Amino acid sequence: AGIPMLPVVKGFKTTKKHIIIWVAALLPTPILLTSLGIPFLILATVLNIGWLVLGIYGYKIKDDIKWAKLMFVYSLQYLTIIFVAMVIVTLV
After folding, report:
1. What is the phi-psi region of residue 3: left when phi exceeds 0, alpha when psi lies from -120 to 50, beta otherwise?
2. Greater confidence, 2 or 85?
3. Cβ count within 10 A of residue 2
4. What is the per-residue burial (b if ≥16 Cβ within 10 Å, else e) of 46-83?
5. Which of 50, 38, 58 is nearest to 75 (CA)?
6. 33 Cβ partners below 8 Å, 6+ apart?
7. Domain tally for the chain?
């Protein structure tokens, strides 16, 4: 599509900072969804903390491409698990 992504424009160092900030911003969001129940709140919080830990891990890993792929795969799994959990909780 010819749309430059943040790592290409600003580099991995800046990208890692942005990821930490945006994932940290996700931490309080499960509290806004307490109507879905405590199990969902726990699941969403654990997934958010896992994503933040993976983001912080990016500062220790030497291979930025490997880390970027891990973050991408985690984001896909995160979204899938969160949305499926929302549907299951709503139906039950």
Report:
1. beta
2. 85
3. 3
4. ebbeebbebbeebeeeeeeeebbebbeebeeebeeebe
5. 50
6. 40, 41, 44
7. 1
Cα(65)–Cα(86) distance, integer angstroms: 32
Q: What is the token pair recorded at 19?
A: 């990821």
- For residue range 12-59, what is the model confidence (pLDDT) as tens digits? 889 999 999 999 999 999 999 999 999 999 999 999 999 999 999 988
2 in any annotated domain:
no
H/E stretch holding 20 reads helix 12-26
Instruction: Return phi, psi of residue 63, to 5°.
Output: -90, 100
Range of the domain at 22: 11-91
**Residue type at position 31:** I
In a domain, 5, yes or no: no
Matching residue, tokens 């699941």: 43
